[in-house]
Amino acid sequence: MIPVNKPYLPAFSKYSKYLEQAYARNWLTNNGPLVQELKLRLEDYLGVKNLMLVANGTLSMQLAYKVFALKGNAVTTPFTFIATSSSLQWEHIRPVFADIDPKSYCLSLDSVKKHINNETTAVVPVHVYGNPCDVDGFEKLRESHGLKIIYDAAHAFGVKVNGKSVLHYGDASSLSFHATKVFHSVEGGAVIFRNSDDYERAMFMTNFGIDTSDGSIVSDGINTKMSEVHAAMGLAVLDDIDLILAHRTALFELYLKELTGYVRFPVWHEKSNYNGAYIAVTFSSAEQCTKVLEGLKNENIIARRYFAPSLNTLDIYCAQQSGSCPVSEHFASATICLPLYFSLTEKEVIHVCNTLKRYL
Ligand SMILES: *Cc1c(COP(=O)(O)O)cnc(C)c1O
């Protein structure tokens, strides 16, 4: 069987070498040395500052909203994983869905402009499949409208625009280090703040609102900590990250080569690079998509609609929704992600592509 995804496992000896440090110190959590080391190495690797590690990617989104004290509504995309909008709703910020751009599959700037109203405090775009949004366009919107821009960058580890990390854009970006992501720590995530003031405020809020200088409690707080055990996995995976990215990108490019002319792909940001996070293909109709999915399954190849359904059509959001999002709804019905993970071989990719072509 060829699954759609498989977590990357570093050599156990490498992982245990980091774990042994935690054992030797008898230090398992509370901003320990492994978490501190992972933070510094990630800042260095990604070329960013103000990176804060947290327990998962969803929490990193919630933390960003909280630091900016968002209220009212936030304009976001329906073509994403549910966590993008459920994290807003959980923090009592109403998600308002604008449509996506049919080329990039990312949130359309024009559609966002039509959905902004006097209760809008933020825009939450997603770099879908690791393909950067119109970051320059959103930057102008941020300046002209005084809105906070918080990127869900869960797919965008290692992605650059104009030679610098895509994580530099907006007021904050959120990464997920879930086991299925390009870089992972089993569970985990990070927020990257543009301003160090916001980073400092976040550090404070996430230590239960305790002022560590004297132990007094001075504000509301929460616990978002990453443990030393999770950081150990993160460090072991980070040791191998160049290999992981190179192999995944090579497989991604092989898919493009084999399937060009047969299916449609998202058009990549022209000043960016691939990170091989996901290979998404779109068919001409939902029916053709279903036929291929079932055909692949018959041959023990697992692919899946991703993302589906378009979130604006969910019952939990319908009541508060005004318009539809036709582009997102169409793409959600006719787009799948094909198998892509580190232990997948080029031979298997060719096999997946040939099988797919047979069922077209
Ligand atoms: C994985 C993912 C998340 C959530 O991350 P977790 O670490 O699983 O909480 C959020 N948004 C997108 C787009 C994702 O793919």
Q: What are the low-pLDDT stretches, counting only 5+ consecutive residues below 50?
A: none
- Please tell me what the overall shape is: globular
Distance between the termini: 21 Å
Count of DSSP E strands? 14
Helical content stands at 40-55%
User: Which molecules are bound besides the chains?
Assistant: pyridoxal-5'-phosphate
Q: In the residues, how many domains can be counted?
A: 2
What is the tally of helical segments? 13
Strand content: 5-15%
Structural commentary:
With 360 residues, this protein is an alpha/beta fold. The chain has 2 domains: 12-239, Type I PLP-dependent aspartate aminotransferase-like (Major domain) (Aspartate Aminotransferase, domain 2, 3-Layer(aba) Sandwich), CATH 3.40.640; 241-359, Aspartate Aminotransferase, domain 1 (Alpha-Beta Complex), CATH 3.90.1150. The protein has helices spanning 12-25, 33-46, 57-67, 83-90, 109-115, 135-145, 196-205, 228-239, 241-259, 286-298, 315-318, 326-334, 346-359, and strands spanning 51-54, 73-76, 94-97, 120-124, 148-152, 160-161, 164-165, 172-176, 189-193, 210-211, 216-217, 279-282, 304-305, 335-338. Helix 10 (286-298) packs across helix 13. The mean pLDDT is 96. Pyridoxal-5'-phosphate binds at residues 56-58, 80-81, 83-84, 126, 152, 154-155, 176, 178, 189.
